[in-house]
């Protein structure tokens, strides 16, 4: 039976991407990465989409690499290159998407599952989820830019502990360390993510796009460059129709209707 590795749903201005290999706890595959790459390109070019949710089907968010498939049918070097390069493009596409992305971590997030969550702007995690970066313990390596996405969230010492030891850590620890934004019962993870995404979708898309871009560069620029880039962003926002709409809505005490222009 043909597998549909990614389900796509739209409600209002929010697009939900659902990893859909529940029989394998949503373990990643090349077709899943390819479907994500195609969809993320479409989202980036779609001004009607203002926020994105990434979640998983069934009881897991994503259990990481499909080790059974890798063992049963070892990939050729060419297949391995395609798998790795496609996956890295997907993670970077998530990180640089103009729209904010909310990870609804509805269950276990292992390896690539955590890499997905770390590539999102917000993380809502189930209070019973198992979280781990097992790659080094399995004689492989992390992907998705984890060496900087994890370090940026939890600091060098904690990132080294999680990557080099590969130990499980709890959702409570993820929240305490700043890896997650919210902790929810599993049944409430997606509704909480939908509430968050709906709030984000109401904001000015130009401002959010610029904020995401500058936050992505925050660790590589000095204070003077940050000030210069912020000034450029302020000027760009001030020249937009959305800035005028924001002022008018404030004066009229109503919610603004931003158009992204």
Map the helices and strands:
Elements: E1 6-11, E2 14-19, H1 30-44, E3 51-56, E4 60-62, H2 67-72, H3 77-96, E5 101-105, E6 108-110, H4 112-118, E7 122-126, E8 131-132, H5 146-154, H6 156-165, H7 171-177, E9 182-184, H8 186-201, H9 205-217, H10 223-238, H11 241-252
Parallel strand pairs: 2-3, 3-5, 4-6, 5-7, 6-8, 7-9
Antiparallel strand pairs: 1-2
Mean pLDDT: 96
CATH domain fold name of the largest domain: 2-enoyl-CoA Hydratase, Chain A, domain 1
The major sheet is characterized as: 6 strands, mixed
Q: What sort of overall outline do the alpha carbons produce when their principal axes are compared? A: globular
Q: What is the class of the largest domain in the CATH system?
A: Alpha Beta
Helix content: 40-55%
CATH architecture of the largest domain: Alpha-Beta Complex
Side by side, the strands of the main sheet go 1-2-3-5-7-9
**Helix/strand structural class:** alpha/beta
Total strands: the figure is: 9
For CATH, the homologous superfamily of the largest domain is named as: 2-enoyl-CoA Hydratase, Chain A, domain 1
Q: List SSEs in N-to-C order.
A: EEHEEHHEEHEEHHHEHHHH
Domain count, please report it. Answer: 2
End-to-end separation in angstroms reads 45 Å
Low-confidence stretches: none
Q: Give the C-alpha Rg.
A: 19 Å
Beta percentage is 5-15%
Number of helices in the DSSP assignment: 11
């Amino acid at each position: 039976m043909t597998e549909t590795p990614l389900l796509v749903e739209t409600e209002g201005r929010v697009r939900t991407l659902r990893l859909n290999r529940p029989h394998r706890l949503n373990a990643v595959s090349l077709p899943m990465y390819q479907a994500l790459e195609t969809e993320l390109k479409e989202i980036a070019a779609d001004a009607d989409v203002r926020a994105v949710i990434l979640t998983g089907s069934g009881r897991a968010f994503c259990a990481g690499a499909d080790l059974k498939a890798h063992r049963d049918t070892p990939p050729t070097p060419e297949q391995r290159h395609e798998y790795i390069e496609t996956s890295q493009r997907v993670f970077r596409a998530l990180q640089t998407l103009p729209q904010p992305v909310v990870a609804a971590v509805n269950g276990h997030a292992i390896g690539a599952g955590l890499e997905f969550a770390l590539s999102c702007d917000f993380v809502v995690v189930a209070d019973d989820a198992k979280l781990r970066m097992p790659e080094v313990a399995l004689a492989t390596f992390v992907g998705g830019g984890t060496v900087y996405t994890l370090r940026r969230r939890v600091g060098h010492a904690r990132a080294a502990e999680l990557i080099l030891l590969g130990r499980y850590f709890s959702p409570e620890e993820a929240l305490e360390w700043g890896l997650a934004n919210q902790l929810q019962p599993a049944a409430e993870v997606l509704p909480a993510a939908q509430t968050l995404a709906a709030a984000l979708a109401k904001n000015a898309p130009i401002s959010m796009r610029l904020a995401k871009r500058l936050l992505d560069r925050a660790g590589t620029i000095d204070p003077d460059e940050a000030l210069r880039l912020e000034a450029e962003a302020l000027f760009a926002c001030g020249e937009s129709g959305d800035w005028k709409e924001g002022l008018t809505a404030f004066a009229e005490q109503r919610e603004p209707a931003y158009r992204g222009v």
